[in-house]
Amino acid sequence: MTGLVIPLALSILAHVLADFLFQTDSMANEKNNVQMKGFLKHWCVVFVTLLVLMLPFKLTDVLMYCFVLSLFHILIDVFKAQIESRRGPATKFIMFIVDQFLHLVLISFLLPISSFTVSRSFSSFIGWFSIHTGLNLSSLPVQRILLITIVYLYVLFAGAVFIRKLFDLIYKNVPDYLQRIAGDSSVLDNVKTGKVIGIFERLLILTLYLTGNVASITIVIAAKSLARFKNFENKDFAEYYLIGTLASVMIAMVGGMILKVL
């Protein structure tokens, strides 16, 4: 399995990029409405992303692997969308976790029955690059770099989706809960920018945790709270803010723990 670690990491990285960075809102909405054009677009994104990341290996080795993996990726998404279309927020929250688990299981299943040989052109490029720059790329801790990248992307972007689905679950009996929490349009805009703020928040917290500056995390939370201080008069907003902040911190800390253990 040692020789499959890098293909495994690249496959997971392709999955994270295709699902959380390269998937547009319109594409996600089409998938949620079980529209085949949404799945077709997403399949193209998954296949191309996976193929590009697998370029260091021989094309004859990875082409079929990329096709099969991307195809089953979409089949899992179709299965998920069909279940979610008939269910409520609780099922959608659970299916988000199940979906991620199934994708990882799929990758782990396909890897051992596939072959990966580094292409001559990539080996030649590594040699050429080392000669002309003096940097030996082959000495880089590639596995560690890929692991850190995957965890960061999961924490930052998958974390945003997780928190949104968590809110949908908590406020499942409150129609248009964002409007109720916001109170007016100006605050509503602030609530919607919470996703971006949360991404930066998790980036800082995860980095501070990994560098051993755990005490500094309180400064990040305090600065965020100070910016929203006036909104705390709205009890609904205060609860919304607290849940989001605690969930965001938890996700970042779990990501940091995973990196420290691995």
Automatic annotation (TrEMBL):
The chain crosses the membrane at residues 42-72, 145-163, 203-226, 238-259. The keyword Transmembrane applies. It comes from the Bacteria. InterPro entries: Phage_phiKZ_Orf197. Keywords: Membrane, Transmembrane, Transmembrane helix. This is DUF3307 domain-containing protein. It comes from Mesotoga prima.
